[in-house]
Amino acid sequence: MATSPISPTSSLASNAAASLKLDDLLKVMLTELTHQNPFKPVENKDFMAQIAQFGSLDAAQRLNSNIEQMLALQAITQSVGLVGKTVSAVVDNVTIAGTVSRLTLANGVPRLTINATDGQVFPNVAIGQLTTVTNPSQP
Predict the structure, then answer these.
(1) What's the pLDDT score for residue 25?
(2) What is the pLDDT of residue 37?
(3) pTM passes above 0.70
(4) What's the burial of 57, exposed, middle or buried (CB within 10 Å: 0-12/13-18/19+)?
(5) CA-CA distance, 74 to 28, in Å (whole number)?
(6) Mean pLDDT on 86-103
(7) What is the 3 state secondary structure string of the chain?
(8) Going by fewer Cβ within 10 Å, which terminus of the chain is more open, N or C?
(9) Is-contact 133 116, C-beta < 8 A?
């Protein structure tokens, strides 16, 4: 079995860092300033650099969230267009062919129901399982 190059510790640290908000980071900075050595204060340029980094981190997190929302909406939009189309998909290592009869959302993730040409119904097919999509009138 292949192992991931990311250790569980680094993955945990990444998840913890991703859940931090700008307010949390500003609280850390305020605590740092409150308890700093008065004989070696943080220089203004270092302080401003930290604030800029926190602002960049917050902007990157918001951008990532917006991109995730956009991708979810795009997947839903594409799925709606598949209703009534003739498709083939790989389900349980078997290729099936049929018509998409229904679209459902499971936790915001689109799932298709395919009525196979042999009469079987395959619910909960992910878009990633599709191999071909054609209009019903096309060969």
Answers:
(1) 72
(2) 72
(3) no
(4) middle
(5) 38
(6) 92
(7) CCCCCCCHHHHHHHHHHHHCCHHHHHHHHHHHHHCCCCCCCCCHHHHHHHHHHHHHHHHHHHHHHHHHHHHHHHHHHHHHCCCCCEEEEEECCEEEEEEEEEEEEECCEEEEEEEECCCCEEEEECHHHEEEEECCCCC
(8) N
(9) no
